[in-house]
Design a protein that fits this description.
Elements: H1 2-19, E1 36-38, E2 44-49, E3 56-60, E4 71-72, E5 77-82, E6 92-96, E7 99-101, E8 135-143, E9 148-156, E10 169-173, H2 189-198, E11 206-210, H3 224-243, E12 253-258, H4 260-271, E13 278-282, H5 291-311, E14 314-319, H6 327-340, E15 345-348, H7 355-365
Parallel strand pairs: 10-11, 10-12, 12-13, 13-14, 14-15
Antiparallel strand pairs: 1-2, 2-5, 3-6, 4-5, 6-7, 8-9, 9-11
Helix pairs in contact: 3-4, 5-6
Length: about 375
Amino acid sequence: MRKIILIVAAILSFAAASQAQGWFRQPTPNDTLRSTVILPDNSVVFQIYAPNAQKVAVMGDLPWDKPAVFTKQDNGVWKGRLAKMDEGIYRYRFVVDGMNVYDPKAPDAGETSALLTVAPKGDEFFAMKNVPHGAVAERFYWSDPLGTMRRLHVWTPAGYEKSTDTLPVLYLVHGGGDTDNSWPGVGAAGLILDNLMAEGKMKPMVVVMPNGTIEVPGGDMMAEVPLFAKDMITSIIPFIEDNYRVYTDQANRAMAGLSMGGMETLEVTLNNPEMFSYVWVLSSSFAPGNKEVYEYERGRLKKEADRYNKNFKLLVFTQGGQSDIAYNNCRETLKLFDEAGIKYEYNDVPGGHSWTAWRQNLYDLAPRLFK
């Protein structure tokens, strides 16, 4: 646990240092703001960062008799409170200077964003084409380590429903701040996989897209990585193997993740190498800038090098070129793998730290699995 906290802290330190180079905007109270806080008495505090606004309200399926009255704090955050509410599910939206604003800090905020597809020719590898299409299912499972119901998405190839074939599995994780809807949404995973299948470029497989984002007290992302790793091993994999016709051996199991999902991929696979044959780390790394983490990872990789070389049939690191904000950290991390004599591949694709690169990564990755 301490190791993971140090890794994430170092990455955050790297990001903070990069701000001085113009890579990141200056931090604001919005970065750690919780837009809704449910208090023990079932009253709800609503918050939105709108430093230039003149008036803020909240609307939706909420009690009308005692509306929340918003006041502006010195830090630019508007805060309003609704008295005790009955148990239930409510829709809401902020109204900022007369304009409807859907909560940008809600856990599912990314899913309410519109998708703009720019595909001039229509023959791009991520385009919707006249080919057999698989199914992307939204599934819910019980997470033992988190003690709650969680959601994931699963892509199955065209014809899976009528088939009796048993298939291998790829576990594909998004980055920080996103959800399990990101890969099948902006990541266009279903379309990419459908097109590869139609062209005969990949083996049939089941692709599981879990939610790597976990709400933790105070919004502390440092605690998310080990929690997800436990969820992956104890709940996600067993759920998939209980509910889908998939192989359950190492040779037919792969994992890939981008950015923070790459950290989660490393956490899962390096601690359980006998469970995975294929590991892809996209735009991610350890944090060698932190001396303690650097020395820990140096020692661990040297100690476990033979184990990793024996178990990982294909270990790949890839980035979106030098404009990828993870670029320097990843290159430094790979020095540890070199020192330990661990076999891996490395490549760059255009796109920086963005879905342009990660969609290309999936297009390149899928055909190489389970050969």
